[in-house]
Amino acid sequence: MVDVSLWKAPVAASPVHASVTLPGSKSITNRALILAALASGPSTITGALRSRDTDLMIDALRALGARIDGDAGATTLRVAPGDLGSATVDCGLAGTVMRFLPPLAALSNGAVAFDGDEQARTRPLNTILDALRGLGVDIDGDGLPFTVNGHGQVSGGVVTIDASGSSQFVSGLLLSAARFDLGVTVRHEGRSVPSMPHIDMTVEMLREAGVRVQTPGDGGDADTWRVFPGPVDAVDWVIEPDLSNATPFLAAAAVTGGSVGVPLWPARTTQPGDAIRGILTDMGADVSLADSTLTVRGPRSLRGIDVDLHDIGELTPTVAALAALADGPSTLRGIAHLRGHETDRLAALRTEINNLGGAVTETDDGLRIEPRPLHGGAWHSYADHRMATAGAILGLVVPGVEIEDIGTTAKTLPGFEALWETMLKPSSAEQIGAPS
Ligand SMILES: O=C(O)C1=C[C@@H](OP(=O)(O)O)[C@@H](O)[C@H](O)C1
Ligand SMILES: C=C(OP(=O)(O)O)C(=O)O
């Protein structure tokens, strides 16, 4: 149920100067959990994110038969694979749970019943269920709720899908495919696949677990990914900080003319959040990476931007908030698929920024944002963690922004309000820590 209480977004009385340490990446944590549950021995996961999306994944894998040691909130997890059996899975509103788990559930010996939040029922899902049917899996239903009737084995083989709605359809099939009799060859046909770095993340993590993968980039056909059958090795995973969750904090420096540093920024990563460096630079901020800390120094005023976010759609709410505060117009393109995210993010951003006096129009594949003086008002978050954090960015410089259901940030960043409020304290340049 949506919490309709309002959180008064704090205004930055002066430029923000802070160091903010972020917890682990949602996307890497949930992939590591899946691979650990399919592995041939016990794995450890260090620096795991504990949030609604990752706890739903942990609960589901435990219900399916994996043993996961680590109390509520523990960021070091020991995962021992077990025999997979009947289970009930709550997907919440998590794309990674609803799309990564059905292929794994197909390997179980028993019926695995999936459901989730009411709002999750409208997220695109049938592509992966149809793909699994094409690979020999018995499934009742075409969307939430649905049941995967596992028979302990999946034939696998070649399947053609339209993954233009979500990269998670491809990632989900690839993650479990080494355990299918024939592995899998996924061919995409349709408009281009979004969020390609997330598929690269999947491929990289599979290879780290000793799985043989062929991609379009290494001799395979265009838009085709192949996972060969074989064991999944146990790995001691170390999770990078969540760079998408870092973006609102970096934006705080950009919109207040301050400076924010994020330690433990990886030198090389498949996380889309890394692209915030180029975006903030193009908007006029000074961005530097030294001694593993990414530091953003805000300009006197931000420039508008014309940017294709097709590969990095997750960053759209942050970029839209930045653009609404820039001194010239912006165009965000390549993100039609955001209409199937936690909420229709294009409609939500247009509506909420315009409610504060903005001038945002929706295009076929994105947003056009004209700068306007903004005023305070209620900001609806639509159970979308990134809508809530986008409102917080605006609230730093627009007095009177009140955010509905700030607790929805717990989807990927529990404790967001405390981290945000601490960032605004004068002493916070010293260190703001993630929970350990
Ligand atoms: O694989 C992943 O971990 C994700 C892939 C992307 O999904 P889409 O391809 O549906 O945009 C991204 O937006 C989501 O937050 C996480
Ligand atoms: C789209 C997102 O999440 P999900 O994994 O639920 O698709 C997101 O975190 O921006």
UniProtKB/TrEMBL annotation:
Phosphoenolpyruvate binds at residues 26, 95, 123, 168, 345, 386, 411. It is an enzyme of class 2 (transferase). The active site is at 314 (proton acceptor). Residues 14-418 form the Enolpyruvate transferase domain. Gene3D superfamilies: Enolpyruvate transferase domain (3.65.10.10). CDD domains: EPSP_synthase. Its EC number is 2.5.1.19. 3-phosphoshikimate binds at residues 26-27, 31, 166-168, 195, 314, 341. It is found in: Cytoplasm. InterPro entries: Enolpyruvate_Tfrase_dom, Enolpyruvate_Tfrase_sf, EPSP_synthase, EPSP_synthase_CS, RNA3'P_cycl/enolpyr_Trfase_a/b. Pfam families: EPSP_synthase. Pathway: Metabolic intermediate biosynthesis; chorismate biosynthesis; chorismate from D-erythrose 4-phosphate and phosphoenolpyruvate: step 6/7. Keywords: Amino-acid biosynthesis, Aromatic amino acid biosynthesis, Cytoplasm, Transferase. One of its GO terms (molecular function) is 3-phosphoshikimate 1-carboxyvinyltransferase activity. It catalyses: 3-phosphoshikimate + phosphoenolpyruvate = 5-O-(1-carboxyvinyl)-3-phosphoshikimate + phosphate. Monomer. Catalyzes the transfer of the enolpyruvyl moiety of phosphoenolpyruvate (PEP) to the 5-hydroxyl of shikimate-3-phosphate (S3P) to produce enolpyruvyl shikimate-3-phosphate and inorganic phosphate. Belongs to the EPSP synthase family. This is 3-phosphoshikimate 1-carboxyvinyltransferase.
